Amino acid sequence: TVVSANYRVNDKYYLTLEEAYGSITGTEGIIVVEKNNTDNSTFTVASNKKITLNTNGKTITKTDSGLTNSGTLNIDGNGTIKTSEAIDLIINNGTLNLNGSGAINQENPTSDQYNAIHNDGSVKINGNTTITAELIGEELPLGPLKTYTEYALDFSKGDKLQLGNSTELDLKDPTFQKLINELKEGESFAI
Known about the structure:
Strand 17 and strand 18 (168-170) form a beta hairpin. Helices cover 8% and strands 35% of the residues. The protein is mainly beta. Strands 2-1-3-6-9-12-15 form a seven-stranded mixed beta sheet. The protein has helices spanning 17-22, 174-182, and strands at 7-9, 12-14, 28-33, 37-39, 43-45, 50-54, 59-62, 67-69, 72-76, 80-83, 90-92, 95-98, 103-106, 117-119, 122-125, 130-132, 160-162, 168-170. The longest helix is centred in the C-terminal third of the chain and has 9 residues, at 174-182. It is built from two helices and 18 strands.
């Protein structure tokens, strides 16, 4: 065991996400976060890879570059991936599955042009992951909405709502159900 190792793949230990990912020779692998760390390495999941990043209750603070996914990236566990840098924290061009009860935080207070998740693929939130950022995915206008389309959800016609960029809203998700149940008559929300 290497005392200063931040990540583990099988029984081998690595300092950076890039090194851990580079050690995966097949098309699938699991990277386990071993301790809280600051990581400035490049992490890009290729289109032919399926990688699970188990945050294991730990915090990864990204600097210089975020995570890029062109394959399948599963983020499991109850840890946090965060940045306060002027970068998109996760750039998703593939399939991103957020499993567990962790957090994805873009904490840059001076810029509204960087995302917690910049999504050009498919994102599924399968657990209670918290995503904190000024923007998620496409840039949203600031201020009051000028145009909108009212839409009434009919829960009897299915349990998923397909949004743009292949993003699904799980209507049966406990967090979404809580939001709906807390709405008062006359209130609304925007997606």
